Amino acid sequence: ALPARAANADAHSYAQPDVVRVSHIDLDLSADFDAKVLHGHADLHLEWQDRSARELRLDTRELTIEKVEVSRNGRRWREAGFGLADADAILGQQLSIAIERQQPKIVRVHYRTAPTASGLQWLDAVQTLGKAQPFMFSQSQAIHARSWVPLQDTPAVRFTYAAKLAVPPGLLALMSAENPQQPSEDGRYRFRMSQPIPSYLMAIAVGRLAFEAIGERAGVYAEPERLAASVHEFADTERMIGVAESLYGDYRWGRYDLLILPPSFPYGGMENPRLSFITPTVIAGDRSLVALIAHELAHSWSGNLVTNDNWNEFWLNEGFTSYVENRIIEALFGAERANMEFVLDTRGLADDFRSLPVSEDLQRLRPDISRLDPDAVYTTTAYTKGSWFLKYLERRVGRERLDAFLRSYFDHYAFKSIGTDTFLDYLQANLLADAGDAVPAAELQAWLNQPGIPEFAPVYEARAFAAIDAARAGFLSGDIGAAGLPGKDWNTHEWLYFLDGLPQEVDGERLAALDEAFTLTRTGNSEIAFAWFQIGIRNGYAVIRPQLERFLMEVGRRKFVVPLYRSLAARDADREWAKSVFDKARTGYHPITTGSVEEVFARAANR
Ligand SMILES: CC/C=C\C/C=C\C[C@@H](O)/C=C/C=C/C=C\[C@@H](O)CCCC(=O)O
Ligand SMILES: [Zn+2]
């Protein structure tokens, strides 16, 4: 049972920021790749808000707490009593530390993580590209930092941190902090993040990594075998930083580097400050999927600088970021490309609304997920509906005024965590006050509180897509040979639009003809592969199976594998095969991915 909570508390954390706030964390950890654990201690520097409080509550999940000490000055330590509550399936375990006599300035928690820590993935060498050294990386968003550090795991609390890390010599250790660019000789590293961040932005990665600069403030870390391809793919990153700064103000984090993870990474990217974690599935060879880099970079303003203060407000992070992402793409590659990407995103949102077990509440920008696992209710609503709302504001008040407002908003709330009500107050006072009736209150409320997309949402089109609609109609109606197959000069986004618009049923002969002409089953573009596999699954196009199995064995990105397993599990002819693939693939998946796929098969069994 969840403890009684202060009115504005974060339902996904046992922390009590109204009682005490962690202002800084010093980590001193060793990475044991044989046992697949981190162990050592965390020093939490405290700022007491309630001088009468006699308890410190922290979030943990599967941590073994060995000892707790307290100190007033960081020199003299005294052991403290502590207790771990029963584990909650979503929140993990509350760690309660007894405070006797004077309230301490620092609490030192001696602990070790579990090999099954939900926020860490430990890969054996054979699971990496180079197959020479093991690899470990974290994913803390939304509530997984607690599985590798005992802390106040809520975005409402922001803290600086420093770390001492010991790893096997020869491996490079990185964090969401000031980073080395070469491995240390003895495997010992020191890190510092001197700007206050929320816990979900704590990050760590250790592996056989090399670095190459791709600009004045940007560089790429990757396994040596993947470095050249990564450097080529993300060559525009420095330009993206410059464009984003010209639109929304200075980049406040120093460096902006990219860490290319093994393909088991569960997300496209994770906006860990100073070091975005990136999936290798966006290395398409033609830079067609770099909107993801624009997205993670954009988080340097929305999400990392101005942060949602709980996970019901996720749209404050992701909606603003998706809007800024699209503006960066437009500035670099033109309005047509930006429109194509937004139109595809809106079609993806419509799919989510149609296909996911998405309750009506999850179609709202501000759902109430207080009693739910954030990973289990993850949809594109916050991203695409959120950015659509900002595009609506842009259309109503004009781009120049909206940009000026966003610059002011990011600056005013820099390094703070807020909720939507605070945003709305600032919007009213600084944009709508002199916008007349451009944004009626009823429309504002519809965007923020109603499910679905308002009928007054602005419509976006891409010029190239009209011709593709015609080509698709011809492909589906004519005899295949006569009309000739469309698509020989299409770019990634045009292909995605063509495939997305195909009906649920397409006869095998047409699929085979497309495959024959454009080798779609063997494409190296993960987005096209995903779209094509979905079409093949629902039409029983068995030719895809060997490549689909290879994809599911190699790639752990939830965006792809969860819907693919969902489609396979929905078909009697594919369910057992899919389970056999999952049984082989799961050891290579991140715990977050494994959990989601298990949920897919559990739902299918209960259908
Ligand atoms: C209604 C949902 C409310 C809150 C959910 C909060 C977090 C969900 C948790 O699963 C963490 C998500 C992290 C996402 C990280 C990167 C994304 O921006 C991109 C993911 C999609 C992709 O693979 O491209
Ligand atoms: Zn994001």
TrEMBL record:
Residues 462-601 form the Peptidase M1 leukotriene A4 hydrolase/aminopeptidase C-terminal domain. One of its GO terms (molecular function) is metallopeptidase activity. One of its GO terms (cellular component) is cytoplasm. A peptide binds at Q139, S140, Q141, P266, Y267, G268, G269, M270, E271, R557, R558, K559. Its cofactor is Zn(2+). Its EC number is 3.4.11.2. Binds 1 zinc ion per subunit. This is Aminopeptidase N. The keyword Hydrolase applies. It is found in: Cytoplasm. Zn(2+) binds at H295, H299, E318. One of its GO terms (biological process) is proteolysis. It catalyses: Release of an N-terminal amino acid, Xaa-|-Yaa- from a peptide, amide or arylamide. Xaa is preferably Ala, but may be most amino acids including Pro (slow action). When a terminal hydrophobic residue is followed by a prolyl residue, the two may be released as an intact Xaa-Pro dipeptide. The keyword Cell membrane does not apply. It comes from Pseudofulvimonas gallinarii. Keywords: Cytoplasm, Hydrolase, Metal-binding, Metalloprotease, Protease, Signal, Zinc.
